[in-house]
Amino acid sequence: MIAFPLDEPRAEASLRVAFSGNLIDRQAETRADDAAVRALECLDARLLVLGEGRICLRIEGEDAFNPYFSRHDAEALAVRFGEAVLLGHEGGAPVLAVSSDIDPEALPKGIKAIDYRSVYIQDLIDRTALGALAQGAALVAWHQNHRFCGRCGGETEMRAGGYKRVCRACGREHFPRTDPVVIMLALRGDTCLLGRGPHFAPGAVSCLAGFVEPGETIEAAVRREIAEESSIAIGQVAYHASQPWPFPYTLMIGCYAEATSTAIVIDENELEECRWFSRAEVRLMLEDKHPEGYRVPPGGAIANILIRDWASSVS
Ligand SMILES: [Zn+2]
Q1: Which of the chain's ends, N or C, has fewer CB atoms near its CB within 10 Å?
Q2: Which residues surround ligand 1, an ion (CB under 5 A)?
Q3: What pLDDT digit, counting tens, does each position of 182-202 carry?
Q4: pTM higher than 0.70, yes or no?
Q5: Domains and CATH numbers, the chain
Q6: Are 70 and 126 in contact (CB under 8 A)?
């Protein structure tokens, strides 16, 4: 039996990943159809302005960025107010997300449009705002991808402040989706299994991952994905942490998995390298000191948390 890091009492690991700091009171049970329209009329409403995978940030000083705009300030950014979604309330004031058609090269002075990944890797906004961004980005992307009914092909329109679309032709209701992905660290003895995809930066390795398929449990998805990508057999699976991942609307489900075999056969369509790393090696990688230049994903990524928590647990 493997000793999983979660055998020790610890703070909720999900609170340490990026995009998890959302403090918005969603008030999901009271979302009126015109909730976003009415929220936009509040003078204290705060707006996240999003477009093409980027968020507009106001430059307020050296390395100081503010992701929130008033309705008045957002008017200069070619915002589609009619498609605003109400994320909820924070500090009693409404928080909305709106999409913008503005060219990132044509922004007013003092405003930058930064892609979501850079916003988190470069730590440009606080974790609460980053959590709101995860909610807003997922919703805005879902609306953009679901303008037509999947049943009859008719046009759909937004309801419930952005938490529903209804088909004008057949009346079918459509709700925002979240796509579950399992991401897992397979462990065997004092080693863990890491791989690199063909699109990874030089030296970068990470946990294996893949979408949960219909009719599948989290545990079954972990076993199937690891078997497909590496041919490693898995026994026990244990959940550790999750991460909202707005690319476009994924929930990463982080697990540890007990490997019951050691011989790796790589799926070359998915990975270009996959091997066992010792805990001592992983500790060097976390400090960016591995002699062969191997590196783990950046802090805030759930893969980093899975790797870090195992590396720092007692062997
Ligand atoms: Zn329809």
Answers
A1: N
A2: 149, 151-152, 154, 167, 169-170, 172
A3: 999 999 999 999 999 999 999
A4: yes
A5: 28-174 (3.90.79.20), 178-312 (3.90.79.10)
A6: no
